[in-house]
């Protein structure tokens, strides 16, 4: 099965494509094509001709064709996308964890660009951008009407050049400009430290090419500090995803050898695949098993996985696998629900499309798409509660999102009411001083969810969520 990694071995991160996406990178286009619908093709040709002859001013042929392709692909779901020359290069660049920009993962909301999270240590992070900030202008360009890829292009640039973002921060009821100097972003995707004697914390902010090696090194450091580790917290909060082979490797670090980590299913034969906790599914070509150096004790150390609404794609694969095998207790909030695979198919030497080709499933066969991973223990963000969880965006909230193929979805009236109540609370919260509203940094001594995870590992009572409940899909009805 190792050969299938060349088909489904890549996962893009939100900072590249402007969305949270699990992505396969395929080097050859599909050989066979379905018969073309001639009548519809004739209509397309007729429209092209009318635009060329009747539009108020001349339009470039190439622009018309590429815009038509982009519109066709974008109409499918939030994660399918057309890549022009520049965005294709940026996509490939992003999987290495190095690029020149401001350092934010973004998505789209109400026609504006929404910050999913600033990359830790990036210029955007240092400038104080926050999750849920809305970008209304990039330099002098209004964001309304821009595609995600166009917004990414405008925020990218040469090192040491500046870009000004106009930020709408709803929870503070203000709009303000932030000028950021672009630089090469070398994201550090793994952090770790001892929280207290016997209990360690390791955080993965993305799954990149270097993540597995960094993960192994950080685990080694923790065990050097305490060879008899009593418990470990794997923190995947706000982790938007990354490379699939890295997710399989991190899962394999904790699971028995050769068990299924994730499976995928779609129309194409190559979309039907099973990935196991074995080096042939995650080791890079020409290198040995990167997990060989890990302490044997890691397979059995008590484990808690922390997740939230920002945990997506590859991080959901890890959380789902560890939960299914009861290897870890998953704690936090229901995850984003990004459970589809996008294959990148070249259209030429420097253009291509990213097309949704499969859904992925946990080892027990559960679809993650539009549902996410439901924690074993729901946790609020603070001891006072998690009053604004209803306002957070997940895959199921995205326009044209793909269903999970197992349940039908209907508008959740209860959730809509909860959103309205949360908006009112947010208005009141905005009147408080900023210092009273700021959530503590992940891994800090004031990190409420981390403290609850340590209590879980110690066998002590945990303060479960006062406000959260599982977001369920409606079951299909048989007429």
From TrEMBL:
For this chain, one GO molecular function annotation is:
endopeptidase activity
Top-rank taxon: Bacteria
Q: Which residues cross the membrane?
A: 7-29
Task: Locate the compositionally biased regions of type Basic and acidic residues.
Answer: 468-479
Q: Which InterPro entries match?
A: ClpP/crotonase-like_dom_sf (IPR029045), CtpA/B_N (IPR055210), PDZ (IPR001478), PDZ_sf (IPR036034), Peptidase_S41A (IPR004447), Tail-specific_protease (IPR005151)
Question: Which Pfam families does this chain map to?
Answer: CtpB_N-like, PDZ_2, Peptidase_S41
What keywords does the record list, in alphabetical order? Hydrolase, Membrane, Protease, Serine protease, Transmembrane, Transmembrane helix
Q: Using the record's annotation, list all stretches that form the PDZ domain.
A: 88-156
Q: Which family does it belong to?
A: Belongs to the peptidase S41A family.
Q: Please report the name of this protein according to its UniProt entry.
A: Carboxyl-terminal processing protease
What is the species of this protein? Answer: Giesbergeria anulus
